[in-house]
Amino acid sequence: MTAEEKDLLRRYLDLRAKISECEEELEKLKPAVFDVVDEELRATGEKQVVFEGMSFQIQYRETFEYSPEVKQLEEQLRAMKKQEEKSGVATIKSQTGFVRVSKVNSENFD
To answer: What's the distance, CA 29 to chain centroid?
Structure first.
């Protein structure tokens, strides 16, 4: 591997670390940002808070708990899909290559 290729991989790892740090910080900020936006919307009666050219809005996502019958049908469907994949009945619609990065087990490190 050339020095340039090593620099490329090193830069990739550095950026991944920075992204991870930023994502953690964003997750910590979300509740406080929600409170600020919610308070401002209640105070103004508006549907959005415009700040530095960006629109902040409150939205809600609902999740549902399904009946045991539906859960059983979902499990059956998953099993049927796996079986079709194994038997070749299901066909590959698309395939995407990607790089998986993980720490090397120190016992296996050369």
So the answer is: 17
DSSP state of 63: -
pTM: 0.71
Distance separating alpha carbons of residues 15 and 9, to the nearest angstrom? 10
**Rounded-to-integer distance, Cα 29 and Cα 22, Å:** 10
Structure tokens belonging to residue 84: 């079709």
Confidence of residue 105 (pLDDT cuts 50, 70, 90): confident
Count other C-beta atoms under 10 Å from residue 48's C-beta. 14
Phi, psi of 70 (to 5 degrees): -70, -40
Contacts by residues 62-71 (CB-CB < 8 Å, ≥ 24 positions apart): none
